[in-house]
Amino acid sequence: MKILPYQPDQSGMAYSVGTTLDRFIKSKQSDFPFASGELSQLLRDIALAAKIVNRETNRAGLANIGGAFGQTNVQGEEQQKLDVIANIRFMRALSKGGEVCAIVSEEEDSVIDLQNGSGKYVVAIDPLDGSSNIDVNISIGTIFSIYRRKTPVGSPIQEEDIMQPGKEQVAAGYVLYGSSTMLVYTTGFGVNGFTYENSLGEFFLSHPAIQAPKDGKIYSINEGSELEWAPGVKNYVDYCKRSQYSARYIGSLVADFHRNLLKGGIYAYPSTQKNPNGKLRLLYEANALAFIAEQAGAKATNGTQRILDIQPETLHQRTPLWIGSEKMVNEAMGFLSKKREAVNL
């Protein structure tokens, strides 16, 4: 009997799908000596819910699940049908997995106590960010943060379990539903991205060890709010224009952040006269993306303070956000602190 060694295909007729998310998670379990597999399973639960939301998103135009739901959430924002669907999918996945004791969701007024005595983790999540873009087929996303509870397992959930600053996160990530669906996450040991292969139903490692460029030429800000900006913000945007930076603003936080993370750039949602405290939510939007940004060598601030150092005071607390390539964020902070003026450009 003749035995031949395996030779990888060189014909170009096939491609390597590489490492699955599940296998990658298992290979990294040793990074968490305090855990016994629960965090790994929690990440799998999130990935499963993301697959379901991806399916629902892809069929939204055919299944009459686009458009407004007819209610507003606690933010005073009109809920889209897919907002509600995504919230249900993630709630089910997180509650049935057994690792989570409480959930904070953009779509829920209060903390959801799962009354799971053995749950070690708290999840803060925006189930479907940018959902108003669904009807026009623009990329949307899911953003999530994972914290270890502070109180002993088995005891009732307390405020200290929920109101943790972003630096206490043990994991954070986002899912981008676009031309391809990607899951990007960090557990504090770098950032890795996984692309969903529909025919196999698996996420595969496609962007290992993501590092954000230290500088960039893209700025992302809603210039429709210019009349409500502080002078420092106006001066910085003028600087970007005079420097011939490219203006790129999708209006979907995950999509804008993802592009700038890979290509180099800055995303800004500053305070305005209408929203002096900013508009993005600290617990389940800014914290997660700030954790990812710093792990990839980028930077995130509210204009005066590192995002991950902010102590939350309310469940749906808002914050300004400046996030992206380190040099660009530092430049912007120079304008906000009035160390640089428009006349010096």
Automatic annotation (TrEMBL):
The keyword Metal-binding applies. One of its GO terms (cellular component) is cytosol. InterPro entries: FBPase_C_dom (IPR044015), FBPase_class-1 (IPR000146), FBPase_N (IPR033391), FBPtase (IPR028343). One of its GO terms (biological process) is fructose 1,6-bisphosphate metabolic process. Its cofactor is Mg(2+). Mg(2+) 1 binds at residues 106, 126, 128. Signal peptide: none annotated. Keywords: Carbohydrate metabolism, Cytoplasm, Hydrolase, Magnesium, Metal-binding. Substrate binds at residues 129-132, 222, 249, 279. Its EC number is 3.1.3.11. Pathway: Carbohydrate biosynthesis. Residues 213-333 form the Fructose-1-6-bisphosphatase class 1 C-terminal domain. It is found in: Cytoplasm. GO terms for molecular function: fructose 1,6-bisphosphate 1-phosphatase activity; magnesium ion binding. It is an enzyme of class 3 (hydrolase). Residues 20-208 form the Fructose-1-6-bisphosphatase class I N-terminal domain. Mg(2+) 2 binds at residues 126, 129, 285. It catalyses: beta-D-fructose 1,6-bisphosphate + H2O = beta-D-fructose 6-phosphate + phosphate. Binds 2 magnesium ions per subunit. Belongs to the FBPase class 1 family. Homotetramer. This is Fructose-1,6-bisphosphatase class 1. The lineage of its organism: Bacteria, Pseudomonadati, Bacteroidota, Cytophagia, Cytophagales.
